[in-house]
Amino acid sequence: MSDHASIQQEHPQHWETSIWPLIMAVGILVALPLGFTFKFAYNQPLAAVLCLGVGVPLIIAAVAGWVNEAITGGEGLSAPAMGWFILAEAMIFVSFFASYWYMRLTAPDWPPGGTPELPVVLPLVMTTALVASSLTFHAGEVMLGRGDRGRFVAWLVVTMLLGSAFIGMSLYEWAHLFGQGFNFETNAYSTVFYTITGFHGAHVAVGLGIFLAMLVPALSRRTNDGFVRTAGVYWHFVDIVWLFVVSQVYYW
Amino acid sequence: MNVLKEWIFTTDHKRVGILYLIGSLAAFAVAGIVAMLIRIEHTTIGPTITNNPHDYNVWLYFHGAAMILGFQIPVLTGYFANYCVPLMIGAKDVAFPRLNALSVWLFYAGIVLALATFVMPDPPDVLWTGYPPYSTITSGNTAFYTFTVLLIGFASILGGVNFLTTIAFMRAPGITWNKLNVFVWSIFAAFVLQLIFVPVLGSAVTLITFDKYLGTTFFDPTKGGDVLTYQNLFWFYSHPAVYVIFLPFIGIVYEILATFAKNRVFNYKMVVYGGFGGIVLLTGEVWVHHLYVSGMADWIRVGQMVTTLLISVPVGLVVIGLVGTLYKGAITFQTPMLYALGTLFLFLIGGLTGIPLAVASLTIHLSDTYYVVGHFHYVMAVAGTFAIFGGIYYYFPKMTGRMYNETVGKLGFWITFIGTNVVFWTMMDIGVKGMPRRYFDYAHFPQFEFAHQIMTVGALFIGLGFALAIFNWIHGALKGEKAPDNPWGSKSLEWTTATPPPSGNWKEIPKVAEDWHPYAYGNR
What phi-psi label fits residue B439: left (phi over 0), alpha (psi between -120 and 50 degrees) or beta? Predict the structure, then answer.
């Protein structure tokens, strides 16, 4: 026992630290729960904007700092860990779909009154864009495996453009449907439509954020194979979920 | 200043674990005080300390939510998992230390939202269950309930990702799956459950907030929704949550029993694969027994009755393993051992009183009475808390490098143990006789006033016993005698490092001998 103590006194221990997890947690707390509550529960839009103004920059700073710290060290286990995370993510979609199926199968008639004609062509274009983005990301990954950082960055940018186009089309469609009086409160179909497509769209947006966090260091020639592979697994998952969304919500 | 920085920015698994411990014990203390308020309120028929039934609803909300989401799950899957798992598997840290730190701070964010209950206008008043339609029409702030669940749930999912990866890939050479501590297995099983089921709870509470604030119609029958959707989603998580609590606390009890009985774990493979594995496989198929009186077809009721009764088979394997571990052991009765044996006793009562509740015909009589409250406090709340307190006593010397006071520890145990049985046995008794749960005022049941007074006295005993334990820890951590590296003479790997363990745990990754086993106490 005294041996340990004397060793510790001669060489003070170095404890690993990182400031970014705490910053990110504070950012999330301020931006989401407080922002949402001020806007919707207490009807204080100004306070809500203030919360977003403080919280969102904190989150962005935390992501940037975190990536900066982690990109040089190989966190080699992140791809299998993403597998576990996808299990959890899949369960969220399963519960949304279960609620949807339950509502739909017990409804007297479907679609319920007040539902306009949903577009048929646009979802096909969106599907094409998202599937293509999975392929372009894979192409980038292959290029990185060959050590060609320049082509990797090019394919990454193409992937991000396709993802942004997807989000743009989704927002356009939401605006279009809102214009026809089909909003959150219309009926059971609008409820599941906006919840499921919105939740999937949020995943696409998070994916784009991850790509951005990968792109910035890649421009200064810093990449991490584990990071790229993990992001790829996530992106392919988001892509596959979309096939369920589009077949269940649009074409059934 | 530097020391403070090394704590709040820490990514070391032991310090993250201790941060979890401090936060969850704070939640436990406040939720415990609120429980006292609930009990004191029931000392007399009619209003006792508040005239406002709304206050009572807020107390019930906070007590339930904070005890389950703020205390039991974080202390078990946060503190114990963080502190013990890397030490038990011979790793220098978890797989993702920064992610681990993010988990603990998200948990603190959730605790902050929960504690805001006492200072904010219109606090949540939806119990810990948040059933619609009440939760979507109340003037209380349901959004804070939702976000508390989401923050702590997200912390839990990140923890699950972290620990499953750690256990799968970072075991020291020679520590095979069949040589893992039972506690490591229990954490593995609990986190598999968390990953599968927490997202469903997250969806359920998100949908009530969407319904309340954004106007969606998931639970509004006038627009095609159904309130039962929520109950199904909620209990699809919240029944497995019982096992998320049960598995780690019984894992701790295994560690304590093996050490203080100086004995092998009885039927190790049957406990781990049959018991824990069986629970993981079955626990997702029993949630409907929480909805027996909500209305459903008879064939569903019968099916769920069968699966619910069936799950007592793997649970039985786990309990037999505990008793078998004591068999022919050289038992000594230090404080951790008393708490562990207390857990076994309380869990048996709780488990056996659960069988009538699984039977659909009996449940129609017992549902929403104090019998249910008494049952789940026995089986989950106090059995779990006794295991947690035993575990904290058990790891106290390793964690702080000092010893607690044995006499005060034992005194605290006996006071709590007596109080617990007085309160919850009485509760089950008057429940069978018809006392409904969640009533602010029981003027229609004056015959139970004396029983309520007995329970209030018992509750004060519980509070005193737990307060003694916490006082004992604070005093021991500051003033206790120096502890040796392995005060209990355990064979398990976590006791081979220095006390308290340094940063990085070991100078180099430990190598275990060919015939090493965490419970190799010789042939007995």
Answer: beta
